Structures are given as C-alpha cells and as structure tokens.
Amino acid sequence: MTKPALLIHPPLGLFEMRLADYDVVHWPTDRKDVRAAVTIGSVGISNAMIDALPELGAIVCFGVGVDGIDLAYAAKRNIAVTHGREINHEDVADVAIGLMIAVCRGFTEGERVLRENRWAPPLAIPPQRRLRGRKLGVVGYGAIGQSIAHRAEAFGLEIKWFGPRAKPEAQHAYEPDLPKLAEWSDILAIAARGDQGRIITADIIKALGSDGILINISRGSLVDEDALIAALKSGALGGAGLDVFQEEPTPAVRWENVPNTTLTPHLGGGTREALYAGSQNVMENLRRFYAGEPLLTPVA
Questions:
Q1: Which of the residues 3, 5, 57, 194 has an alpha carbon 20 to 30 A from that of 101?
Q2: Is 266 among the residues known to form the active site?
Q3: What pTM, to 2 d.p., does this model score?
Q4: What residue numbers bound the domain in which 14 lies?
Q5: Of residues 172, 219, 225, 288, which has the active-site annotation?
C-alpha cells in the first residue's frame, strides 16, 4: 500500500520518527500529491506553498499559534487548519510569571554580579521592586491570558485586561482602550494572538512609562522591537521580560547593553508534557483527516 505524502515544514527532528505511516517530504518539493502538511504556527505554510500543492486539504499545527498561515486564503482553498489549543497555555503562563519576578527582582543582573565576582555587601544590586500591590494589564484574555491573571492573583496584583470585546464570564476588569490600560499598568503582559499586527507601538511603550515593565510571551511581531530597545536604553521604560522576538533566533548583538531585561529563547510552551500532548494532538488530527472523520481541534 502506498503511503500518503505528508509535508513537514520546518523539519521536526525526532517527531518525524513517529510518522512511519506517511511518506514524509520537506520543502521545497515537487510532489503534487501532498494532501496534508504539519507545521509550527510561527513558521506556517505560505500562500505560495499552498498554490504549489494542489491536493492540500489540511494544515496541522503544533501549538496554539497559527500566525504563519493566511487563514482566509486557506479557507478559500477549502483547506482545514488545526492547532493544539489549551495544550501548553499553563506552561506559557508560568514563564510569564517567571519573567515578571525576574525583572522586578533583578535576577539577571544579580546572577551577572555573582558570576563576575562583583558581589559587594550589603546590597549586590540596587533595591528591586516589590511585586505585590502592583497593577498588571493583560493584553489578550484567552487561555494564556486568563492563566497569567489567575497566577498573578496569588502575588497580590491588581488586574485588568484588554481584548477586542468584553467577555461576560471574565473574572477580571475589562479595559477596552489599550493606551489607557498601558497608562494604568505597572506591568503589561502580552498574551494576544500573534496575527493582530504590531499592537504594542512606541506610544503604548511610552504610556507604560519609566517604571513600567513589558512582558511578552506571545509573538515578537506584536511589539515594535526597535522602539522597545530604544525605550529601555533611554530609561523611558523600566524593564522587559521577553520570551519571543521580532526575528528568531534573535541576534545576540541586538541585546548588547540593553538594561533591565530578562530574555529567554522562546521556551514558553516547551515542556516535555506539552510537547508530548502536542504531538499526540497532531497525530490524531492527521489520523482523522485521512480517515475522513471530523478533525479534533480545528481553528475556530
């Protein structure tokens, strides 16, 4: 029996060992019989790739993000898109809280002082900022945003959130104006979908202010990164904790001499448990697609 051709883009290393039932191909390919593709949302399958694959009927994504896919174009071509919703949101929220604590308490600078043998009592680094009692603005109130807000409650933060529309079931105060939320916030955590464009502009960063902290665990494309770096260097912004970047991998030189930052290499959803659950989700969506069954987690 001929194995169905399956496009994997980008290559997914050890995961591909699980795909023995498929004829795995990578891009570029001249195969015209590819009916399904597996991708990472931030990389995606471009419209040009879709046009080159006339039999494509499904794009299956690891993780919740689908920002590398033109959903309207996929729908026009009758291509189903699935993702791994509510698989790693708790893990991503953990990283957001970790970045908040790290920036407020100066973990990165503290470690640097210790490792460089510059620890001089009584205070190794200047006094840090207390987390309790600060105001947290959450941009995006989906599974990740709600998980961040829930965790933040335990640290005694006051919470408001911004999104395209109010949610009657929301447990926290809704602020419909993003600039007002930034001005109100001591900490602004970005948990919005990655397909919304550059919503964190220079003006939003300015509104957050010289004592404010920006946390981003969503997508680097949401933030004006040049404006962010300039504000951090000038002191117009107090600090930033970033797990995602405009370009990934981000050039290390770009962050030289940028103060008051904690940077992590897009590890938010990368726990063993989430990766396993994500792979199971991909496998089941593929099985259902080829069996002609309803897909497990189609993009709403």
A1: 194
A2: yes
A3: 0.93
A4: 5-87+272-291
A5: 219
